[in-house]
Amino acid sequence: MQTDHEREPQGRDQVTPFPIPSRIPLFPLPNVVLFPKTYLPLHIFEPRYQAMVSDAASHGQCIGMVLLKDGWEADYYGRPPLFPMGCVGRLVSVQPLADGRSNILLQGLERFEIESEWHDKAYREATITVTAGKRGAALDPLVRQRLVTLMESYLRLRDDASTWQELFREEVSDEIFVNTLSTYLECTPLEKQFLLEAESLHQQARRLSDLIEFMMHDQSGSKGWD
Predict the structure, then answer these.
(1) How many domains, in total, are found in the chain?
(2) pTM for the model
(3) Is residue 208 a contact partner of residue 191, using CB atoms and an 8 Å limit?
């Protein structure tokens, strides 16, 4: 696991906010939720999304990751319904492959809400409003400690604690800690969307704690809130 803490240079004066266009391409998927301060590798093979990556690489370098709603299968190649809140991903790298396919890496920047959609290209675009707000506010230390304690207990049940030790370091910021945990915890896409839509980082951490407690008491360990 590699967190944003490990990738980014240290020092506040070295970090410059990346400009997010008001109109960005949308990449709707049924099983992926991107969070700010995390990284997402993707394999691009559909022609419409090959065009999307090419356009984004030459203009704006931003792609809006959004989750498809239930029933998307009936109209996947058209305009299936999607959740109105997603996360802007900055196109960090593009690795071209054969036949126009590519591997890309996105860096989560900020949450956004869709204001209107555009359908004049092969892929969907949207005019968006970035909703950063107070999401980056620091957590109450007791809230963070409860989340760490619950996660450690959960990992002991799975015998997987060593994978997550880097994330538990105190110097990892609250925002990176909560969003990385939200990304890699084995919960459903709908649960991840519920975490993304939290009004504050504090609320997201609370929801994470509740989810981990539920997973610990669920014998299968794979089902979530239904």
Answers:
(1) 2
(2) 0.85
(3) no
